[in-house]
Write a structure and sequence with these properties.
It contains five helices and 29 strands. With 573 residues, the chain is mainly beta. The strands form seven sheets. Strands 8, 9, 12, 15, 16, 17, 18, 19, 21, 22, 25, 26 and 27 form a 13-stranded antiparallel sheet that branches. A five-stranded mixed sheet has the order 1-6-7-4-5. Strands 20-23-24 form a three-stranded mixed sheet, with no helix packed on it. The longest helix has 7 residues. The radius of gyration is 33 Å and the shape is extended. The protein starts with 30 loop residues before the first strand and ends in a 5-residue tail after the last strand.
């Protein structure tokens, strides 16, 4: 038997306060914020978008600083500009968090070196003498613990699967028995992707199985009254009277052979009713999931080489894409084209930089970069002429899905998003010198930027607009004016008009691409003069020249106030 005696030990308290932010910044006139690699790794960022880090910067609202207008900021990756001058936006899929070494924002009285009031600067990671890497995945799946709602008329709840995954690796370039790049040559690579597959339960009215085969014998309103169809091919040219539609002695049944090519192509693209006993003229007869899927990925590769103690070089290539696919107002077709909208936003960026040290107090940096994005917004796959596939007119020989409306069922139509495209490319060269002379830190250099902005604005239904509100199967009411004819009540149906292919058609001819071109030129000089330990002057001047926009084909139009004249970019003919 052991009876231990437990005594209270001594207690100790230690409090450390480190990195206390000063109430007043006295060493710089510039407002801003810096996040180093450790904080980038530790901050919880939903979606892993690097611009989410802007939430940590006081004064930033989204990508605007202190309420300034859009385009007043510049996003720079390793000295390479990423934002476009036309829309003022940033790439949809930026470099991954795994590739970012430092995140810095400067605004309010920045150096003359910078071309915008706010500069958002990202620095990518490089390899080191030691090999290092990482892997990660975040997975969310609705397969466990998610109940169906009452309107989910299928075996599983709406899908929600989200995967964020990627990794990075870096180290010295090492070729056994050939080359040892430690302290000299390094590589780094990072990849990150997001896959989100989700859906939402919605309800629509769709044609019944009988109506798709021409049988409208149960075409009744909410009071159970039969809606009579009349045959447009029997129209009396004088009285406009028509004979009721029938086939093989059955009233309101259309000969299946009379189905129009358009209806024959469209009906198989719409799901069958999930509630076949519900009259679609009265209530929704289809309930089911509609998609909203996102795919994103980005990869960054960097190569660093030290030629000598005085010369350092790096090359960095980044490529990414963002694709979103979702329903667009109506019920998506089974071929995933009609009533959907697709957004594609691929981007690529290449930067080269060389830093040369002339002396411990004088060095030079040159950065050359090119960045390209190619945005697409529309219905269907880019370049596919769906009007040709459906047997519809295509007078302007354009791609895209046509708009098809007034089908007789509320909410049942084929919508198309107005096609937009934007292929933006910018080329940038920056040359920066720094000279330390006594109490003066002198910064000076130049900037050149050339933008190719190939932009196609919204194409308003250039694929054609079709509607079936034609009164083709209605009976003319003789009591109405012949200049504004009206149907006899309880006669005619737009879905039957669609079956027969009697439609109104119109189209728009609109401008295609604009091939805008623009440039930037700039020179700057900055003197950070430390007058005394308690006084520093930050003096700078910047000269910029932005020539006016031009169009490669001379289609821009302007106005001359002096002569009150419209000025054309080229000859009127």
């Amino acid at each position: 038997v052991i009876d231990p005696i437990m005594r209270v030990g001594s207690s100790a308290t230690k409090v450390e306060v480190v990195a206390v932010a000063p109430l007043v910044t006295v060493d710089s006139p510039t407002l801003g914020s810096v996040l180093e690699r450790t904080r980038i790794e530790q901050l919880p960022i939903n979606g892993r978008n690097v611009t989410s880090l802007l939430a940590t910067v006081p004064g930033m609202e989204g990508n605007r600083a202190f309420g300034m207008r859009m385009g007043s900021q510049e996003l720079v990756l390793d000295g390479a500009n990423l934002a476009d001058r036309f829309l003022g936006g940033d790439p949809q899929r930026l470099p991954s968090l795994e590739s970012v070494e430092e995140f810095k924002v400067e605004n309010n009285n920045s150096s003359a070196k910078f071309s915008r009031p706010t500069s958002i600067m990202l620095s990518t990671r490089s390899g080191t003498n030691a090999f290092h890497g990482s892997l990660f995945e975040t997975h969310r799946n609705n397969g466990i613990g998610k109940a169906r709602q009452r309107q989910d008329y299928y075996s599983k709840p709406p899908q929600l699967i989200r995967n964020e995954f990627g990794g990075s690796a870096g180290g010295p370039v090492f070729l056994p028995k050939m080359y040892d790049g430690r302290n000299r040559t390094f590589w780094f690579f990072a990849y990150e992707a997001n896959r989100t597959v989700s859906s939402t339960t919605k309800s629509f009215r769709v044609p019944t199985a009988a109506e798709r085969s021409g049988d409208f014998s149960e075409l009744r309103d909410s009071q159970g009254r039969l809606i009579q169809l009349y045959d447009p091919m029997t129209t009396n040219p004088t009285t406009w009277a028509r004979q009721p539609i029938s086939y093989q002695g059955r009233n309101n049944v259309i000969d299946p052979a009379r189905i129009s090519p358009l209806a024959k192509a469209l009906f198989p693209m719409i799901p069958m009713p999930t509630l076949p006993d519900v009259n679609p003229l009265i209530d929704f007869n289809w309930w089911g999931p509609v998609p909203n899927n996102t795919k994103q990925w980005t990869t960054t590769a960097r190569f660093d080489h030290r030629f000598s103690d005085n010369d350092n070089f790096y090359a960095r290539y980044t490529q990414g894409d963002s694709e979103n696919f979702k329903d667009f107002y109506g019920l998506p077709t089974l071929n995933n084209v009609g009533n959907t909208v697709k957004t594609l936003m691929p981007n690529r960026s290449l930067a080269l930089s060389e830093t040369h040290t002339f002396s411990p107090t004088f060095f030079h940096e040159i950065v050359a970069s090119v960045s390209r994005s190619n945005r697409f917004l529309g219905t269907g796959e880019p370049g596919v002429k769906y009007a040709d596939q459906l047997g519809l007119p295509n007078p302007f020989d354009v791609a895209g899905w046509p708009g098809i409306y007034s089908t007789g069922l509320s909410g049942y139509y084929y919508e198309t998003e107005n096609t937009q495209r934007a292929a933006f490319t910018n080329y940038v060269v920056d040359s920066n010198f720094t000279k330390i002379a006594g109490n003066h830190e002198l910064q000076f250099g130049g900037h050149f930027r050339f933008d190719q902005l190939n932009y196609m604005p919204e194409q308003q239904q250039i694929q054609g607009n079709i509607n079936f509100s034609t009164l083709a199967t209605s009976l003319y009411d003789p009591s109405t004016s012949r200049t504004n004819p009206q149907p006899t009540p309880l006669t005619g149906d737009n879905l039957a008009n669609m079956f027969l292919g009697v439609a109104n058609y119109r189209n728009n001819f609109v401008r295609g691409y604009f091939y805008a071109r623009t440039k930037e030129y700039a020179l700057y000089f900055q003197d950070n003069f430390k007058v005394s330990p308690r006084l520093t002057l930050n003096l700078g001047v910047r000269w910029e020249y932005w020539p006016p926009y031009s169009d490669k084909r001379g289609v821009l139009t302007s106005f001359d106030p002096a002569t009150k004249s419209v000025v054309l970019g080229n000859d009127l003919s």
